[in-house]
Amino acid sequence: IRCWSNIPFITMPLSRAHGKSFAHRSELKHAKRIVVKLGSAVVTRGDECGLALGRLASIVEQVSMLQNQGREMMIVTSGAVAFGKQRLRHEILLSQSVRQALHSGQSQLKDMAIPVLEARACAAAGQSGLMALYEAMFTQYSICAAQILVTNLDFHDEQKRRNLNGTLHELLRMNIVPIINTNDAVVPPPEPNSDLQGVNVISVKDNDSLAARLAVEMKTDLLIVLSDVEGLFDSPPGSDDAKLIDIFYPGDQQSVTFGTKSRVGMGGMEAKVKAALWALQGGTSVVIANGTHPKISGHVITDIVEGKKVGTFFSEVKPAGPTVEQQGEMARAGGRTLAALQPEQRAEIIYRLADLLTDQREEILLANKKDLEEAENKGRLALPLLKRLSLSTSKLNSLAIGLRQIAASSQDSVGRVIRRTRIAKDLDLEQVTVPIGVLLVIFESRPDCLPQVSALAIASGNGLLLKGGKEAAHSNHILHHLTQEALSIHGVKDAVQLVNTREEVEDLCRLDKLIDLIIPRGSSQLVRNIQKAAKGIPVMGHSEGICHVYVDTDASVEKVTRIIRDSKCEYPAACNALETLLIHRDLLRTPLFDQIIDMLRVEQVKIHAGPKFASYLTFSPSEVKSLRTEYGDLECCIEVVDSVQEAVEHIHKYGSSHTDVIITENEKTAEFFLQHVDSACVFWNASTRFSDGYRFGLGAEVGISTSRIHARGPVGIEGLLTTKWLLRGDNHVVSDFSEHGSMKYLHESLPLPQRNTN
User: Which residues contact 646 (CB under 8 A, 6 or more apart)?
Assistant: First the structure.
């Protein structure tokens, strides 16, 4: 205990069991004891008179949910003044209306004026009602709440401070949620700059400092400060260049310009930051977030505890590298520089990367061996994923060949004129190809994906953010290092960034101001999760690869088993592998059908019977649980159809619009299938495994898209480009083309420049 002006106060917080605050957002889910501070702007209505009941009910629901999970929740709340103001205004209006009705008549009611209400009186009138409201709300979740009113003197007096500490601990032990507020009915007016006297001293002037003081005294794991702004900005919110700060570190105050304080309440953002930093030094993690936004207020508290990127997180641990936001900006700037290079220069970068894949083969395979050993030791990856994780000399050689194909085909990809129109005399319009912008590619267990996607991004002039699975961390690191080495020959190293921070995929999908297109490469579950999480960013890809092979009555015996074996067994974990085999009913109990079954048994393919196929068998294999199953292993479903038309209908009902095949010698039947099956890839007498960018001659692919717009099927360079319009005129104005104007529209098509086909 030290003394200052004869008033004792604590100079350093009491020691905590765990000592330090959480270093990363992902650790917040381990928070046991949590303080939620509700600012006046959160609790009160926009007119500052009365409470925002719907918002308050949502907050109580979230706190109750966390309390029922076994956490210890405390609330520091404002709102007594606003609630009291509402009650007192009502009483004054009622009183005035009665008096004026008795003495002056109804005509005088309109002249009534409401006097200025003193804040302490409002607080005294509102505290009981506010607490009754909290009690009623928490009762709905079978949770008891208790009210505690404090002043600054309660912390300065050692005995009172210990009593407060003991009371709070006892309430938490009994699973009761303490509702704490400053006793605004008796609290003296705040003295200027008396709330924070340096980093080690904090007195209670407002609920921000109260929440920080309480959090440290109670050795709290997490303090959530809810206000009416999204978090801490580097300049006042609403200004043109204001950017939300995701993580704030001690010492960053100099880079922040504070605006005015909140529309209600005592504290502004500067007070919140000072309180947050004091709590952080005391070992409590802090997040400042928006508790008023209608789209997020219903889950803002639970999102923070789950580690999602909400508001501003205060951390003492500064990462060694750039943040993902900084990486996004670097990729944007690097991509624009990349797009401005000559086509030969971009091709030179890709050729260099292809050479590095073979020249540095031993280093790459050594890193990949570490990933494989760690994955096998942990036992977390299934065999198909282990196969995807594995690199080999042949894979690297194939990668290098594919990259050289990309380099050769990329000479006129960016800036290619695809349409020219003469609008009028000396007014010519061109439509030219341009990069999409910044791509985010998220991939699992596929380190070979990194150089493929990087080469396609380089060829198309796009900036690139890569997020690989942690199971391939060593492989991804060396491959990204080689990619940046290749980019460095023309000074565009920053165009391709590998995200190594602990960013959750869901958080990356919210960076709509930094990312223009998301491309997931991985399991169907990963793709579905990304499609669900992406907010305002288009997602290119397919959620499932349910590929069909239909064996027609006119199928060649020699071709059937070869195509089916290759489609299912060559690489069963691939998204273009056969999953459902459709057999024409007339082929049952024929030698051809027996050959198919024998081949699948030899290859150890587990067979699941479709409903119709099972009805033809006395003793059938296990009946399929769903005809929409992507097995990704040596398993497949067999189903029977009566015609090519029924095969088409089955594919449309149960397929995923990925790749579907017909095996037949009847050209008319084949053409019917090719024209009527509505999938990204439809083949005749060829394996499903040909659905691949490399095999299509695209060099490589960023993925296979089953969407209906922009790009479909294997997506190469062309799928990573969009267009812009260039109009060249000479003092042209629209008014010249009016009914009485001097010019007329021509709209003549002009010949395109000759493409470079070398």
Answer: none
Burial of 148 (0-12, 13-18, 19+ CB in 10 A): middle
DSSP secondary structure letter of residue 666: -
**Which three-class secondary structure state does DSSP give residue 419?**
strand
Distance CA(131)–CA(175), nearest Å, equals 18
User: Residue ranges of the chain with pLDDT lower than 70?
Assistant: 1-19, 47-50, 96-116, 185, 187-205, 253-268, 502, 543, 620, 755-758
At 427, is the secondary structure helix, strand, or coil? strand
Tens of pLDDT, residue by residue over 106-164, are 555 455 555 667 777 887 877 888 888 899 999 999 999 999 988 877 777 888 889 99
The single residue listed with the structure tokens 């210990």 is 162
**Rounded Cα distance, 322 and 334, in Å:** 15
Residue 49: predicted pLDDT: 63
DSSP 733-746: -GGGGSTTSS----
Cβ proximity of 516 and 464 under 8 Å: no
DSSP conformation letters of 547-571? EEEEE-TT--HHHHHHHHHHHHHS-
The 3-state DSSP class for residue 692 equals coil
The tokens describing 62, both together, are 């979230």
Antiparallel, parallel or unpaired: β 312-314 and 247-248: parallel
Q: How many CA atoms lie within 13 A of 22 on its CB side?
A: 24
Helix, strand, coil percentages, rounded to 5, for the chain: 40, 20, 40
Query: What is the rounded distance in angstroms from the CA atom of residue 719 to the CA atom of residue 713?
Result: 10
What domains lie within the chain, and their CATH numbers? 25-92+117-187+200-314 (3.40.1160.10), 324-416+433-533 (3.40.605.10), 548-701 (3.40.309.10)
Helix ranges, 341-427 (H): 343-359, 361-378, 383-389, 393-409
Least Cα distance to 701 among 687, 709, 711 occurs for: 711
SS3 per residue for 237-253: CCCCCCCECCEECCCHH
> In whole angstroms, what is the distance from residue 143 CA to residue 196 CA?
35
Contact, 42 vs 69, CB < 8 A? no
Please report which residue ranges of 108-202 form alpha helices under DSSP H. 119-139, 152-156, 158-173
State the burial class of residue 629 (Cβ atoms within 10 Å of its Cβ: 0-12, 13-18, 19+): middle
* Pair 738, 424: CB distance under 8 Å: no
**Around Cβ 572, how many Cβ atoms within 10 Å?**
21
Q: What would the two tokens of residue 621 be?
A: 């294999």
- And the tokens for 173? 């032990």
The pair of structure tokens assigned to 157 is: 């007096």
- Report the alpha-carbon distance of residue 656 to residue 639 in Å, rounded: 17
Distance CA 64, CA 56 (A): 12
Provide the 10 A C-beta neighbour count for residue 198.
8
List CB contacts of 4: < 8 A, sequence separation 6 or more: 197, 201
DSSP state of 428: E
Q: What confidence tens digit (pLDDT) does each residue in 378-412 have?
A: 877 777 778 888 999 999 999 999 999 999 988 88
**How far is CA 107 from each of CA 74, 111, 155, rounded to the nearest angstrom?**
51, 8, 54
**0.90 cut: is pTM over it?**
no
